[in-house]
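Late entry, evening session. Most of the bench is empty. Finally got around to the prediction I had been postponing all week. Sequence below, unchanged from the version circulated by S.P.
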Amino acid sequence: QVQLVESGGGLVQPGGSLRLSCAASGFQYGFTFSSYGLRWYRQAPGKEREWVATITSGGLGSSYARSVQGRFTVSRDNDNNTAALQMNSLKAEDTAVYYCNALRSYESYWGQGTQVTVSS
C-alpha cells in the first residue's frame, strides 16, 4: 500500500515562503515512485478541496492552478521518493490544509495533509 506523508506546513506572514514535502513509500508489484503522477491539492475551512499543481511521473511536465501560477513551484526527486511544493509570495487566501496525491491508472493515494496558515 502506497503511503504519502506531507510535512513543512506552518504559520507564515503574508509575502513569506514555505516549502512543503511529500514523502512516499510502500510501492509494490514492480512499481516505483516514478510510476506515479503527483498532484497537490488544498482545502480551506468550509470550502471544497481544490487542485493546486501537478507534476508528471518523470518530472518533466507541470501545471498550476491560476491562483498559484507564478508563485508556487512543484518538483520531485524520484531517486528519493519525494516531492515538494515551493510556495512563495504567500497570501491569506492560501491558508488551507495541503495534500499530496499520487496516481497511476486506477490507483490514487492521499497523504494526511499539512496545515498552512498565512497570517500577520
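Two things to note before I forget:
The chain has a mean pLDDT of 96.
The two ends are 40 Å apart (CA to CA).
Will write this up properly tomorrow.
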